[in-house]
Amino acid sequence: MLSVVAVACSGDGEKRASEADINAAKKAARTEAAKVLELPEGTMAQEKAILAVRAHESEIRMAGFEECADSFAAEAQRVMMPVLNAQPAVIE
Fold first, then answer.
1. What is the DSSP string of 47-86?
2. What confidence category does residue 91 fall into, taking pLDDT thresholds of 50, 70 and 90?
3. CA distances in angstroms from 30 to 14, 36, 63, listed in the order given
């Protein structure tokens, strides 16, 4: 998935990402966030998927696509947080 977003966010050497670049990052974030929300609430599998989303954001950022990484992170948070905040804490 990183390569898809990184290529989409290449911007032809420009320093700022285009609208299409940012939209591609947001679409990837929505896809990954949806996968997180499909997993059983409060499980290790869901936690692992959340960490994978954060890792993907970091990979995009480390590749030099700051604006795309910011958009990716914000969109993932927008999709996941209302649902994850509504879940009761799991204490084992």
1. HHHHHHHHHHHHHHHHTT-HHHHHHHHHHHHHHHHHHHHH
2. low
3. 25, 10, 20
